[in-house]
Amino acid sequence: MNETKKLREILHQKNLRYTPQRQEVWDEICATKEHRDxxxxxxxxxxxxxxxxxxxxxxxxxxxxxxxxxRRLDLGDGRSRFENKIGIAHHDHIxxxxxxxxxxxxxxxxxxxxxxxxxxxxxxxxxxxxxxxGRCLDEKCPNK
Amino acid sequence: MNETKKLREILHQKNLRYTPQRQEVWDEICATKEHRDxxxxxxxxxxxxxxxxxxxxxxxxxxxxxxxxxRRLDLGDGRSRFENKIGIAHHDHIxxxxxxxxxxxxxxxxxxxxxxxxxxxxxxxxxxxxxxxGRCLDEKCPNK
DNA sequence: TTCACTATTGAGATTGAGTCTCAAAGAAGT
DNA sequence: ACTTCTTTGAGACTCAATCTCAATAGTGAA
Lengths: 144, 144
Ligand SMILES: [Zn+2]
Ligand SMILES: [Zn+2]
Ligand SMILES: [Zn+2]
Ligand SMILES: [Zn+2]
Fold this sequence. Notes:
By secondary structure, chain A is an alpha+beta fold. Helices cover 41% and strands 24% of the residues of chain A.
């Protein structure tokens, strides 16, 4: 699989070692499109008999984030969430305060205006956080 | 002072008690326009012989936030920051990754587009987080 | 293959922001 | 001043995340 190679390549490039634990963590993150936290990833690994320690899960995620394979999200609930970044276009997030549903959005005009605003204020943007919190109009949402 | 009255009023309105500790915390937050964390506020109070416990600082800030006197910011460094909200127009933040300078911005068009995007996705926005992280072009900034 | 050199791992300790507990102190209305 | 109910403070506790360090294991060279 393409993503497996990608990991090996980057680790080699950075003089880091390719280990089964790192591969397992990366595979687990690639397995879904959800926005999962470290504990969640750790538990999924244990559930399928893959024993990678909590510390290693955290350490591996840090490597993946630093090398742009994974994106770290802070949705304001006190822990980081992660999503595979390979082949995924930039987007931001809308979160329902009642059912915690997360929806992705991307608006080219907002992205442009951000750049423009930053330039006006004398900044060069490296990254941005843009999250909308509210209530979804979904039937299944407890907010009725 | 106007802000003092505001606190008394709101506490009364919510059947909460007006105490010197709560007043001190509110005064301390009103004293600057900076984006300070709870520990910082706690330390400032101690420095001027005003002994309010850490727990009370946190509890009071929660009340102030719930009642719209104070805004809670999460700038991604693992602790909440606070700013007086009374008479302050809505704005978002740009943060320099090198010198931690925080600059405020407000762009009407972005605000509108956010609303529009949310509507399109079937959400009603309650609040939003919009932060730009980058490097400032300031002489004094360590990034040169 | 084996070796030597390092990096990595795991278990558990530690950190740090924030919350909780509960007995003592104190608002506020009467 | 009295009663009632809330608030306070000190320190215990929580929880995500990081650190420690001895044991383990990639990796490249021989
Ligand atoms: Zn964006
Ligand atoms: Zn996403
Ligand atoms: Zn805004
Ligand atoms: Zn601000």
